[in-house]
Amino acid sequence: MKPQTKRKKQAIETKEKIFNCAVALFAQNSYENITVGDICRGAQVSVGAFYHHFKNKESILNEGYHLFDLQLEETWSQHHPANELEAIRFLVAYQMQSMQQMGSLASSQYFKNQLTNEEKYILNKERFFYKTIYEMVQRSVNGGSLFGDAYIITEDILSTCRGIIYDWCLHEGSYDLSEKGRRTLDMVLNHYGK
């Protein structure tokens, strides 16, 4: 692999700076009330730099899903439980913690984005999050710790998680998302573990 040039590193840092600033602003105020100018001022970059890295505000939200998968994949490669059911819990906990750290207002912006976006990356079966949960479910079915169709079980896990996050956003983050996510995931796993 070729080492990154100083210019490439600076470009990556600028993109991350814009992204992080935008997410912080989305956590404080409604997405619709934040302008590209607000993001640029907060990130201390030019409007030209913004448009060099992002097509529009919506593309920042799309980038968030991609970054989540990249960060999860890196974390997964460094450490994850060997037991398949614990690995599923690990993946879902990572998702819940990520949303909780972002805050309910910013999380709700991501959900709104996916409702109107043609790409619907959140449903993409090729993303790391989906593929890894599916793989762990399939292994659990093959090993006899879960019973049923791996695809249906995976879809039930993911749709339940999305529902919990949506509910948490509706309640403006008033409860511990990670704790509720853990309890609800256990209900799904127990249902298929019979």
From TrEMBL:
Positions of the HTH tetR-type domain: 12-72
Cited Gene3D superfamilies: Tetracycline Repressor, domain 2 (1.10.357.10)
Keywords: DNA-binding
UniProt-listed SUPFAM superfamilies: Homeodomain-like (SSF46689), Tetracyclin repressor-like, C-terminal domain (SSF48498)
DNA-binding region: 35-54
Keyword Lipid biosynthesis: no
Record-given protein name: Transcriptional regulator, TetR family
GO molecular function, one term: DNA binding
Transmembrane segment boundaries: none
Organism domain of life: Bacteria
Organism of this sequence: Anaerocolumna xylanovorans DSM 12503
PANTHER family, per the entry: ACREF/ENVCD OPERON REPRESSOR-RELATED, ACREF_ENVCD OPERON REPRESSOR-RELATED
InterPro entries: DNA-bd_HTH_TetR-type_CS, Homeodomain-like_sf, HTH-type_Tx_Regulator, HTH_TetR, Tet_transcr_reg_TetR-rel_C_sf
